[in-house]
Amino acid sequence: MKKSNFVLAETFYKFREKRKWLVNMILSIVLELIIVWIFTLTSSKLSIISDVKASSLFAATTFI
């Protein structure tokens, strides 16, 4: 395989070498989508928590 600018080119090439490359490729795409979904859920919760901390810190500083 020659070099490619495509990020996952080597991964897809390895999948094609195997007998069940399509199944492996679909499984890896689904796994990546699940990871991205979990990351977005946790990052949105973290931003909500940091907003609450920032607002409570602001309330504490204005109270003093």
TrEMBL record:
Domain of life of the organism encoding this protein: Bacteria
Keywords tagged on the record: Membrane, Transmembrane, Transmembrane helix
Transmembrane feature ranges: 21-40
Keyword presence, Transmembrane: yes
Protein name from the UniProt record: ABC transporter permease
Organism of provenance: Mammaliicoccus lentus (Staphylococcus lentus)
